[in-house]
UniProtKB/TrEMBL annotation:
This is LmrCD-specific DARPin. SUPFAM superfamilies: Ankyrin repeat, RING/U-box. It comes from the Eukaryota. Residues 182-225 form the RING-type domain. InterPro entries: Ankyrin_rpt, Ankyrin_rpt-contain_sf, Znf_RING, Znf_RING/FYVE/PHD, Znf_RING_CS. Pfam families: Ank_2 (PF12796), zf-RING_5 (PF14634). ANK repeats lie at residues 92-115.
Amino acid sequence: MAYKQGGQDEQLLKPCICPAVVFASLPGDMYLAAKNGDLRRVRKYLEDGHDINAADSDGYTLLSSACVGGQLSVVRLLQRQPHLHRNPRDWAGDTPLMYAAMMGHAEVVKELISRPHQCRLDVNACNNYDETALDLAIINNHADVESVLQNVKLPQLSAGGNNGNERLIVKPSAYVELKFECEVCLEDYNKNERRPRILSCGHSLCTSCITETLNHGPLKCPFCRSPHVIDVRFAAEVPVNFTVDGVIQQQGT
């Protein structure tokens, strides 16, 4: 679905009217996984073919749960999936954006607003108490969130609805490679703690994730499980992925 400007198709500029969620279709442990930021478990749940829009007994989806917990990496992963619905409502009529605003998670609110997606965000939706996300930010004294919501400019999808370098989870092992983002933590590569480094198998991780992996034993690739051919003690000993790093350096990230 492509969003068009200039009045060519005003219907496509309207927020997505998401279908009602099926209550009690999301296991309680997956609600906690999303809320607590267990990125690997959420990814595995999706890889196994489960419904990304399933909801628990209160109507919380993976996205709304991640927004409650302020789990930016989980929200980023979910928003890269084309079948995600971003305006589902729970028992009180609250949406994921409302929860992020209510809890004061400004970075999550920015991610929801700035990410192009086929499901167009409804920033003016009202819950059962006639409150919008902005209202909830004001009520709970989250001035930073209030500022973000008062200056909303939703992005447009490119022709054909392709969001660029998406990482799609359609079925196990069906991915589109991300070039400038660590595929473990889903944070953007940078020149410091997220500098891209390449393992002997050819997969790349950021410096921080390599350090975390080394804390649990010898360095192995989290994707193909191949051991790094050279015994290393520190992430800095793993070669930099200069192809990606060169672009980052030019961009001044």
